[in-house]
Write a structure and sequence with these properties.
By secondary structure, the protein is α+β, with helices and mostly antiparallel strands. The protein has helices at residues 29-32, 51-64, 72-90, 123-131, 146-149, 163-174, 226-237, 249-254, 281-296, and strands at 2-8, 11-17, 36-44, 47-48, 95-103, 113-120, 133-139, 179-183, 189-192, 196-203, 209-216, 241-245, 257-262, 266-273, 276-277. Strands 7, 8, 9, 10, 11, 12, 13, 14 and 15 form a nine-stranded mixed sheet that branches. A six-stranded antiparallel sheet has the order 2-1-6-5-3-4. The radius of gyration is 20 Å and the shape is globular. 38% of the residues are buried.
Length: 299
């Protein structure tokens, strides 16, 4: 079941629409050009998680694209309406996917189209959390400094133009893998197709015990991860060392554990990268359990 609620000035709490009926004009630039932004967040028992972080990132993406979108309070009201309708009609008080979508609207209208969509979460995501994933490295085709040199590429914005990301996932599936980690032309690790990359060390080069989490630099043009940020905050309170830095494929292979982390999949351990095993399975499982507990405290 899918619930749609459109942001409409005539309906302060949002306008419910039939998801089985046509609702978007064929001339909408979100359809014809992928010209728009979106966010996907998790809801648990009808309550959205990290709502403010997602609204902030939606606004940041819209700013990068010079796209006018409804105010934060309007989004919040529509989210409330959509989740209430979903829980009422689906009878599902478990986990759900909440998408916030805004396009530039129909050609020539200069009015954005915006809506909230709520649907059941994919069972495959829970399976990936529990069993881990097989990943391949893919060259994204540009150097790590391109975001500064070419801001019109909209790196760091979560846009509707996801054709490349989906093509990367299809390529991975054709090769027997579950997901990808993108690398830059100058051989730095960037991000997953729909996730952030996270790695951990539990000892330094001399064997001294440490608890260190590392994620790639944001200045490479990757999307700031809301879930990665939440986990970093919780891990810091728990005594973990945190780091943002240049990460290379060799760093991933040398790590005690690697994860792809996102709002819907949460923390998915990476079992292999290009068919090479990551760390020791028992250690990876232990770290995944420990960090999953910390992450759950932020939800």
């Amino acid at each position: 079941m899918t619930v749609l609620v459109f942001l409409d000035p005539a309906h302060p709490a949002g306008r419910l629409a039939d998801a089985a009926s046509p609702t978007i004009l064929a001339t909408d630039q979100g359809v014809t050009r992928g010209d728009g932004v979106f966010e996907s967040m998790l809801a648990v028992n009808g309550v959205p998680r990290k709502e403010q972080s997602h609204l902030d990132r939606l606004a940041a993406s819209a700013h990068i694209m010079d796209l006018q979108i409804p105010a934060e309070g309007v989004w919040r009201a529509a989210i409330t309406t959509a989740l209430a309708a979903y829980v009422r009609d689906a009878g599902d008080e478990g986990q759900a996917v909440v998408k916030l979508i805004a396009t530039r609207g129909p050609e020539g209208a200069n009015v954005p189209t915006a809506w909230v969509q709520v649907a059941a979460i994919s069972p495959a995501l829970a399976q990936q959390r529990a069993q881990g994933i097989e990943v391949i490295l893919l060259d994204r085709g540009y150097d790590s400094d391109v975001a500064a040199r070419a801001p019109w590429l909209l790196l760091g914005a979560k846009t509707l133009s996801y054709a490349v990301n989906m093509a990367a996932l299809r390529h991975a599936h054709n090769l027997g893998a579950d997901d990808v980690i993108f690398t830059s032309g100058d051989a730095l690790v960037l991000e997953g197709a729909t996730s952030s990359v996270l790695l951990a060390h539990v000892s330094d080069d001399s064997g001294v015990p440490v608890k260190r989490l590392i994620t790639p630099n944001l200045d490479t043009g990757i999307l700031p991860g809301t879930t990665q940020g939440a986990l970093f905050a919780a891990a810091k309170e728990a005594g973990w060392e945190l780091g943002y830095g240049p990460v290379t494929p060799a760093d991933l292979l040398d790590a005690d554990a690697v994860w792809l982390i996102s709002s819907l999949r949460l923390l998915a351990p990476v079992n292999t990268i290009d068919r090479q095993g990551i760390g020791v399975p028992e250690v990876r499982a232990q770290l995944t359990e420990e960090l999953s507990v910390l992450l759950a405290q932020t939800l």
